[in-house]
Design a protein that fits this description.
The protein is an alpha+beta fold. The protein contains nine helices and three strands; from the N terminus they run ααααααβββααα. β1 and β2 form a beta hairpin.
Length: about 200
């Protein structure tokens, strides 16, 4: 606690101005979670708590993430306890990969496998944005289609790319050791930083 309380803080207003989401925003005291605000994949059927901090510092980011692990386990237990008996997928061969042994022995399975893997399923014309609550915040997908087999435009909203922009402000005037702690607590995934 001595090393993390007060290290690398960011206020809620600044975090929102940068576009923070996920644990880094919740550590600042903002109660926002995509799974609750825009439910998807039956999250509305689960009972879980959204952990929220107060100071937006390294300690709060750590504590929020620790509680999110506990809440994730709570969701998993509920899902397991309520898992219905029977098939776990719809029998829709246009969108569901066939079993691998069938691909090697049945022509129809091979055709469906090829069509799905090679992207031969037409994408409806139009545009859509959908987001999920990823481990680091709102992971969004913006897709524009002209009706062909490949999207005309595809853009990802990568949470790490967004909140990494605040890093210089968060460590300004800090010790070098605080800069390292702050970076770690933000959980920056380097692959998301590539434009």
């Amino acid at each position: 606690m001595d090393r993390t309380i007060g290290a690398g803080p960011i206020e809620a207003e600044r975090a929102m101005a940068y576009g923070f989401t996920g644990p880094n925003l919740r550590a600042c005291g903002v109660d926002y979670d995509v799974r609750v605000m825009q439910p998807y994949s039956s999250y509305e059927d689960f009972d879980f708590i959204i952990p929220v901090g107060t100071q937006g510092d390294t300690y709060d980011r750590f504590m929020v993430r620790q509680e999110e692990i506990r809440q994730s386990l709570r969701i998993i237990h509920q899902a397991y306890d309520n898992l219905p008996a029977g098939d776990y997928h719809a029998d829709v061969p246009d969108y569901y990969l066939p079993e691998k042994p069938d691909v090697y022995t049945k022509m129809e399975a091979l055709i469906y496998h090829f069509k799905i893997v090679m992207g031969e399923v037409p994408i409806p014309k139009g545009e859509v944005y959908h987001a999920v609550e990823g481990g680091n915040g709102e992971l969004g997908f913006y897709l524009v289609s002209d009706g062909g087999r490949q999207p005309y435009r595809l853009h990802f909203r990568r949470p790490c790319f967004i909140y990494y922009q605040a890093y210089p402000e968060m460590v300004k005037g800090s010790m070098l050791s605080d800069a390292i702690l702050t970076m770690s607590s933000m959980n920056v995934i380097a692959g998301e930083l590539d434009a």
